[in-house]
Every structure is written in structure tokens, then in C-alpha cells.
Amino acid sequence: MKTLADLKKIREKAQEEMKLRGSSVRIKIVVGMGTSGIAMGAREVMKTFLEEISNRNLTDVIVTQTGEKGLSSLEPVVDLIEEDKPKVTYGNMTPDKVKKVVVEHIVNGRIVSDYVVATGN
Amino acid sequence: MSLKRIDLLICCGSGCISAGALKIKERFHAVLSEKGLTNEINIIETGCMGPCDYGPVMVIYPEGIFYKKVTPEDVDEIVAEHFVKGRPVQRLMLQDEDKTIAAHKEVPFYQKQVKVALANCGFIDPESLEEYIATGGYEALGTVLTQMTPQQAIDVVKESGLRGRGGAGFPTHMKWKMVHDRKEDQKYVICNGDEGDPGAFMDRSLLEGDPHRILEGMMLCAYSIGASQGFFYIRAEYPLAIKRIKQAIEQAREVGLMGKNIFGTDFCFEAEVRTGAGAFVCGEEMALIHSIEGERGNPTPKPPYPAVSGLWGKPTVVNNVETLANLPTIFVKGAKWFSTMGTETSKGTKVFALTGDIRNTGLVEVPMGTTLREMIFDVGGGMIGGNEFKAVQLGGPSGGCLTAEHLDVPVDYETLKARGAMMGSGGVIVMDDQKCMVNVAKFFMDFCVDESCGKCSPCRIGLKQMYNILDRITKGEGQEGDIEELQRLGETVAKISLCGLGQTAPNPVLSTIRYFRNEYEAHIKDKACHTKVCRDLFHFKIDKSRCIGCSLCSRKCPANCISGSREDKYTIGQVDCVKCGNCQDVCPVKAIDRIPGIHSDVTAHKEALLKRKARED
Amino acid sequence: MYREICSKYAPDKDNLICILHEIQNSHPQHYISEEAVQTVAEYLGVPANHIYGVLTFYTMYSTKPRGQNIIRLCESPPCYIKGSENILHKLMTLLDIEVGETTKDGCFTLELCACLGVCGNAPVMMINNDVYGDLTEEKVEEIIEKVRRG
Fold it and tell me: Among candidates B587, B588, B557, which has minimal Cα distance to B572?
């Protein structure tokens, strides 16, 4: 990368990817993997998502990570992002809750309201 | 297929439930089925939305209308007017002075936060350079390198009014200018990530959550001052932050954002990570520099300042993590934009870490000048456990305690200092009325005694003496004149200590004496801790009218000092009681209370012992 | 072994802190022996007393053998307010040791430390490089059991 134009190219490409457009990804799962999240069990949560998704052969779902949103008292925090829908944030997640979210929300499209801590951006 | 056209989100956090949210939900179900609307409206229970003092609250989508303090009687009106006729109910909306707030995103809880430094934390993958670039990352660096001279860049920072976010609030552009003006070949920039203040964790969160932003900020500084080498000094307690920064450096190097001729200019830059090893004092810039050099992290007298003689004797800028995090946005959005936020002397936003007895613990970023009330009650959701607000410790062990009367003070560097606290790194430890302020002051003093490096005697000896006095007071051995002695010692230590640690360490004690002198006096004169925290200054008492004589307390007492019978009820032998609290925990009818003050039996026993000892001598 | 670790770094004094970290972490008993100090001193070309000076200044280094797992309980005010004292008592009874001691089986060493910077989830402790938050007495028991099983 040597010029601002190079940077712009990378930016445009990355922005497209972040929007999920032009790809076969239907749902993006973003797990908060800062120290607070990890201290509260985010690693187990991430692992359970990966296991559940591979067990069910869900190919249109991706799992990624982010830092802390600042909601320490709600960690581990997970965002579910679907195209053209408001983002859903789940809080105080555990492996058991993950299993329910995978079945209800990701497979059947029903938000698990008990675990929701925020919606929208 | 779902035919739902409205999502009704009812907050069922514990605050709203206690205000009756579940009854409202039931009422909605009843009214909707009565009107045959069940298929059109989705009722969703959510976790705490945050603004608990407005509870029960709800948000209705697609419009995002926010209703507060809803009662079961309001439900019929909401359904008839809003759901059926599409006319939101004005009177249930939040009133802000003369304006009605309709939309959810305009509610103070969300509205009061302005994310500049934290903009990407929790939104992008910190291990992906592309995602950082997608949010506009490295645009500031590219623009500055190709279109500005170092002096012009410094002028932008000057115009923005940015001040150091690490504590003291020194104007950032002045630090830069001093190093910029030095005519030496080798200069350094150091990112101070030795975040040690108890109750502060924004730097960790930034390093972990948005490492490229900090790296870009460092390079903007390096270009402005003429440095080609930078160091991240991160405390060893933050392994994830260390890993993510190292990774970011690698990624930047791979694509040519670091190394030689960045953006095709003459600017070359390399960065490395150095770690601490558990020493609070290394957050002080001279101590930090010595630690990077592989020495004991002792501070040395200033001047010379690091700007003149820093790392290996070369001109050095030491900037805090959050300070660097603000830079990319300042250059992209402009100095004017940044300086419109904040107060006369403190511009922009500040990240605060809310901890302690508060509902929403975590990080919040608000414009400078936001009041403590807004931060603690609107954003932080208020106190937890139904207790009253008592005090807030700002700025960690270097800061001071403020009380309820300061809740409406706009927070900036100067206003806090004038009231005996300080911005510090932005730790906000909220305490309820169950906390003993003498004990809290002792706790902070204990921390500073532990962390004093021992190089200068005022800090090493003075703080220890202050701790000993506080320890005596909390053990019921306080004497007349102790308060004055604490003040005298505190002022002396603050005045003549070598570095910031000693200069600020007496603050928690001095500020609690200033605002809670009556508690100190009760401990010293009445030998009573009214919050019933200090073990030696309260006693347990069984209320015979409530005692059912079950003997459980007696059986669980490790000192074997509770006696009685079913008929006579039970009594605690005060002289032998070790105050373990077991009896209070196990009593099935809660007949055991903590009573402030030392029991007369204990006082009499002590006097008798003293007399006997005097006779034997 | 110590020589090998040293050779990963340039023989400059400013690498001392990193070298000491790696030596301590790679030792099964998490400490820095006299032999290690001598090796580092030779490698960096500084007197051994300089190394001891640095070593004893920082709280994370130990010159005495410790357990396989180092428990570091945060004793800072935000954790104290949220009841870290109870957690400390629980750990002491559970492991049957005092602060600074190692269990008889050599599995755990219990230490107190300054703020770990996870105050939003107080009380907090760190076992080796893992942080555990919102501790309760029951949770502590589970965690210790889990770490003991490995």
C-alpha cells in the first residue's frame, strides 16, 4: 500500500464484506472476546457456537470476534447480525444459552427474547 | 409466515420487573387477544434497557417509540391509539424540558454517550486490519503524511484542545512541540499502557478492542515530532492486549503501513512492545522509561523532562493509550468538530470506567462536562441493591472522594481538582451507604504503601505513618488529634514527594476527611462505625423479642460464646465474640443485629485487664 | 535451557524484563533461580546484582519456587467493595494455605495482586494467564477443581 487510493480500495472492499453483501453469509455471529468477556466465559461460548454450527452443517453462518463494548455487567456479549434486520445483542451468555440461540434464532428465525439485552445499532 | 407488523419490546430487567413490567405484559396479552390483534404484534421481553428509573419502559418498533412509567391502565390506550390508529401516546414519552422525546435512540442513556475513542470497540474484529480500514482507519495517517507538515499536524492537535487522558491533563500539543523543536536525530514515542489505577480499564479495552487505532495514533505522533521508533509499554497483567498489539504491528508491517517510506513518503517507522512486571509506579513516565531500559522502575526528579532527556537520553513523548486513540478521529473529522464537545478548558470526550455498587458496570464515553449524576444514574443505571448513593471515588488511589452534593458538577480536569478529586485515568468507583469511608481511605492508603517504590522518604515513610494511624482508628484505638496529624502528614507528603504517586497518594484520605469528617470523629471519639464495617467498632446483639431459642447460632459459633435456652432465649458473650458473623448468617428469624460501637462489657473487660497489668508491673 | 531463552533476544539490557518473564514462565515452578540469574548476567554483560535489583523490584517475579499454577487474587478497592475478602477466605480454606504459600501437592500458589483491570466484573482473579470474573464462593470451588484436573 503506497497511496491513499490504495487505502480506499481496501476500504471499499472491506466495507462490502462487513455488510455481508455479495456473499453467501446469512448470519454473522460476533462474540465479544475482550478480557472481561473471556473472564466471564466467552471462550466456551465461542467454542459452543462453532460446535453447534458444524454439528448442524450450517454453511451460511460465520462466527467472528470483537473487543469490549463496555457492558461489563452483561458479559459474555454476542451480536447476531442479519442483513436488513436490526442487530440483536445477547448478554450473559452460557454454552446452554448458545445452544438455544442456535436452534431458535439461527435455525428457526425466532429471537430468544429472554437473553436479549439490546436491539438495533 | 409471520404477519407481525409491530415489535413491542418490554423491558423485563430487574428494575422494570420491580416496577411491575410483568403485569403490563400480561395486560398487553389480554387486550391484544380481546381485540384479535395477537397475530399482528410481537411481544418481546428484553433484558435491562438501562434507564431503570423510568421503569417500566418499552420500545415499539418499527418507529422505535420509547414509553416510560407505563401502568396497566395505560395499556388499553397504547393498543387503541398507537397500535390500531397509529398515533403514539405523547404523554407516556420522555419529556426533556419542553421537548418530547419519541425515539428510543434519543433517550439519555444512549444519547449521552458519544463514542470517539471507543467507536470501534465491540463493533469490529480487533484481529482484522481490513475491518479497521473499513471504518476509515489509516485515512488520517495517509492524509497527514501526504498533505501536512509536522508543524501543521501539531497545530491541528493544538486547535482540538486535546489534553492527556492518563491523569494530569497536560496539553498534548505542548508535549509534541517540545520534542518537535529538539534538533536531534533520534527521538522516541512511547505509548503508556501501564494502566494501574484500580477501577480503570479503558486502556486495556482499547488495546484489545481496537489495536490499530492506537498504532495509527502513535504514528501520527511520531510523524509530528520526528520519531522513527515507538514503544508500547503494556503491563504484564494484560496478556490479550499485548498479543493484539503485537499482531496489529505485524499486520501493518505486511501491507507497508509500517516500515520504510510509509504512503510513499520519507516517513519510516518501527514499533515494538515492552511489558511491565507488576509495578504500579511504572505508569509514571520517568519510571516507565527506566523500566523499558531494563532498570528498576524508579522515578527520577524532573526536570529534565522526557521531552528533553527521555528514553536513552533522547527526546521522548509519552502519551497515554486513550490520548492516542482520539488522534485518528481528530484528524479525520477536524479539530473544530472535536473542540465543540466538552467544556471551556477540557475538550472532547472522556472514557470512564463505572464500577462498584452501580447497576451497569462497564465503560462509558461521554463529552467532558457531563455531570456525575448523568453518568451514574442516566448512563450507569443508578445504584444496585436498593441502597442510597453515598460517595464516588474518582481517579483511583490518586483521586478523591466526592459526595452527593457534587453530583451536578460538570466533570472536567479543573472542576474535579478544585474539589479535591482528580480526573486520573477515569476510574469511577461508586459506593453506597453501606460503605465506611474511613475503611475505604485505609484501603487506598494500603494500596499506595504497597506500590510506593521506596526511592524517596516522604512517600515511603509518610504514607506508612498515615496508614498506621488509619489502621488504629479503624481498630478503635484512635486518639484526639489523629485527624489533624493525618492532614499534616498528607499535605507534607503531597508537597515534597518525588513523583506523582506520592504527590497524589494522600488525596483519598484528605478528601474523605474533608467530606466525611463526622465519620472519622465517630470512629475516634465514640469508637463507633455507623456503617458497621469496621469489625472492632460494632458488636452483635440478639434481640430477645425476636429470638425463638432454636440454638442454631450457639451451635455455629466458633468461639463458643453464645449461651441460653429455649425458654431464656440466647445471649452473646461479648468478651469472647470474634465477630465472625456466623450467628447472623444462620439465624432463621434474623434476630441478630449489628450495633455500632463497642459493647460496654468489652470496654470494662479491657480496663480490668489494663488495671491488672499495671498492678503486676 | 536458560541460555537458549536468552539467545532469542539481542544481548541488550532493555530486553532484561522480557527475558526474565520467559525464564519464569518456562520453569515448572514459576521462579527465577540463581543459576538463571547468573546466565542472564553473563549473556547481557551486566553484574548479577543488577539483575537481582530489577528482579526484586517487580512483584511478578519470584526467586523462590512456586506451584504449577499461580493464583493472583485482585485486592484493589473495586474488588474489595464487591466482596473479595470472602473470596480470599474461601481460597485459603479450600487450598489450606495462607497468602504467599504453595499447596502441599505443589499445585497452587496463592498471591494477592494490584488491580487486574477487569473491575466491571469484580471480584476477579487470574490463574496463570486466565482471568475469572464475578467470583462467588461456589464459582471459586468449581474453577479450582477444573484447574486441578487440568
Answer: B557
Under an 8 A CB cutoff, do A70 and B118 touch?
Answer: yes
B506 CB-near residues (< 8 Å, 6+ apart): B463, B466, B489, B490, B491, B493, B494
Find chain B residues with C-beta within 8 A of A81's C-beta.
Answer: none
B427 φ, ψ to 5°? -75, 130
Query: Domain tally for chain B?
Result: 5
Query: Residue C101 in 3-state DSSP?
Result: coil
Domain of A51, CATH number, reads: 3.40.30.10
Identify any residues that bridge with B596 across adjacent strands, giving them in sequence order.
B538
pLDDT digits (tens, 9 = 90+) for C92-125: 999 999 999 999 999 999 999 988 988 888 899 9
Q: C71: distance to nearest CA of chain A, Å?
A: 14
Residue A39: give the domain boundaries.
23-119
What is the three-class DSSP state of B57?
coil
In chain B, whose CA is at the least distance from the CA of A90?
A: B47
Using the beta-carbon criterion (under 8 Å), do C133 and A39 form an inter-chain contact? yes
CB–CB contact C133 A73 (8 Å): no
Same domain, B169 and B267: yes
Supply the pTM of this predicted model: 0.83
Tell me: ipTM over 0.85.
Answer: yes
What is the strand order of the sheet C108-113 is part of?
C108-113, C69-74, C125-127, C130-132
CA distance C95 to A53: 39
CB pairs under 8 A between A and C: 29
Pairing of strands C125-127, C108-113: unpaired
- Distance (Å) from the alpha carbon of B124 to chain A's nearest alpha carbon: 5
